[in-house]
Amino acid sequence: MRDARVAFRTLGCKVNQVEAESIAAELLGRGVQIVAEEDAEVVIVTTCTVTGEADRKARKAVRHALRLPAEPVVVVTGCLAATDGAELAALGERVVVEADKTAVAARVGTLVKTSRRRKRSAVRVGERFHTRAMVKVQDGCDAFCAYCIVPHARGVPTSVPHADVLAEVERLVSAGVAEVVLTGINIGRYDDDGMRLPGLLRAIAATGVPRVRVSSIEPEDVTEPFLAAAAETRAFCRHLHVPLQSGCDRTLAAMGRRYDTAGFAAMLARARAALPDVAVTTDVLVGFPGETDVDFAQTLTFVRECFFTRLHVFRYSVRSGTRAADLPGRVPPDILATRAAAMRHLDAACRRAFSASMVGETVELLVERIVDSPDGPMAEGTTREYLHVSAPGAGRTVGEVAEVRIEALEGGRLRGKW
Ligand code: SF4
Predict the structure, then answer these.
(1) Ligand 1 centroid distance, CA of 150 (Å)
(2) What integer is the mean pLDDT of 127-145?
(3) With a 6 A CB cut-off, is 185 part of the ligand 1 pocket?
(4) What is the structure's pLDDT at 29?
(5) Which of 181, 229, 330, 358 reaches 20 to 30 Å from 51, CA-CA?
(6) Is the Cα dihedral 132, 136, 137, 143 positive or negative?
(7) How confident is the model at residue 130 (pLDDT cuts 50, 70, 90)?
(8) Among residues of the chain, what percentage have pLDDT more than 90?
(9) Ligand 1 centroid to 139 CA: how many Å?
(10) Which of 70, 99, 123 is the last residue of a domain?
(11) How far, in Å, CA of 179 to CA of 212, rounded?
(12) How far apart (Å, rounded) are the C-alpha atoms in residues 46 and 42?
């Protein structure tokens, strides 16, 4: 009997990260050591398939693991394993595809046998829980937006029972976690026997957690009840990530999104009235089939008008099995690249403008790490608005929450003073 040495390579969204952490926790309970990839007998790759680029990265991660000198078994799970497991299995003899994430730990157990619990590795997972922790509350989506493979990979919406969510948050709070990030594929679909997201938010706030953040919410789920719950919850971080995808009504309709630009702008106005100074970030998908230069120009204009604080830019790529895969009007790769570059340029401008507007403001910083710098130790962390700020680190501790005045924007980084 020997201790199994297992490494993780996790790609994609926050839900994948939470799921990989659950697998890690289960394996630790079975006595497994979590090690660097180079030392591993088993490498668990959690894949994403949201774009063609995500597929490429997943295959690259598997090939990389297969080339490691220790010749590990590569267990592949996640969304690409669910949609295209055969292709992944064909990458090598040492590849084991396990699409069911809840079965991964047991599968590893059959690959390597171990029983002793190793404290050293438990500390490694625990380290991640000191400051901000993700809590999965929901999985799946049945919206079937025309471009999106996620409903095919993850199935219909399911909600984690609220009692389980609250128990997890309470456990994290007593372990000293200062912020929980609620994650899911489509969090607005949360429904545990009638308890919806606003009720869950109130119940989580009642645990005494200092900060709670919602990782992403669809525009139609930014409802009055949600905004009311967010506004009355002191712990709620005034940051919303609301995917826009396009600022062209024709494209939004073709995508199968359930709002137009006027509806999105009205939602933003309601959110900003209910939550003054809320920072809003978004996703933009460029190059959807049929998107013309004029459509894209409309999107650029609309995005500018929305005053987002940050954009996540995605290039459209064909996902077979989705409705958009059969649509005419594919945007040529060079135009796709030009549009993505223009949108990334706008993203940089959004970030700069928001950061510059915060100089002189006093914000609440959650210290996530202390790093060495030529000016001495620096405390780095995240504000409620999802800004990354550093401030002098002497006498500060990881996990501490304190107010900092933002003094300067230097080379794209915000510097503050306690
Ligand atoms: S809401 Fe649309 S884009 Fe989001 S996961 Fe569901 S189908 Fe995909």
Answers:
(1) 7
(2) 83
(3) yes
(4) 81
(5) 181
(6) positive
(7) low
(8) 78
(9) 11
(10) 123
(11) 5
(12) 13
CATH at 137:
3.30.750.210
Report pTM. Answer: 0.86
Q: Domain check: are 16 and 113 in the same one?
A: yes
Q: Domain check: are 118 and 133 in the same one?
A: no
Domain count, the chain: 4
Evaluate whether 136 touches 18 at the Cβ level (below 8 Å). Answer: yes
- Hey, what are 335's tokens? 């135009």
Q: Quote the mean pLDDT of the chain.
A: 91
Shortest-distance atom of ligand 1 to CA 256: 2
Under the banding of pLDDT at 50, 70 and 90, the label for residue 355 is very high
pLDDT at residue number 2 = 53
Rounded to whole angstroms, the Cα distance separating 307 from 310 reads 9
Same domain, 375 and 389: yes
Which domain CATH number covers 293?
Answer: 3.30.750.200
Ligand 1 pocket member 19 (CB < 6 A): no
The predicted pLDDT at position 122 comes to 36
Q: How far is the CA of 396 from the centre of ligand 1 (A)?
A: 41
Of 372, 365, 355, the residue nearest 413 (C-alpha): 355
- Are 139 and 245 part of one and the same domain? no
Question: pLDDT tens-digit profile of 90-112?
Answer: 899 899 999 888 899 888 887 87
Q: Which of 184, 199, 230 is the last residue of a domain?
A: 230
Triad 99, 101, 102: Cα angle to 5°: 130
Which of 49, 139, 145, 156 best tests ligand 1's pocket when mutated (most atoms within 8 Å of CB)? 145
Task: Identify the burial level of 48 via C-beta atoms within 10 angstroms of its C-beta, where 0-12 means exposed, 13-18 middle and 19 or more buried.
Answer: buried
**Ligand 1 pocket member 145 (CB < 6 A):** yes
Cβ–ligand 1 contact at 141 (below 6 Å):
yes
Residue 113 pLDDT exceeds 80: no
Both 242 and 352 in one domain: the answer is yes
Domain residues for the domain of 92 are: 5-123
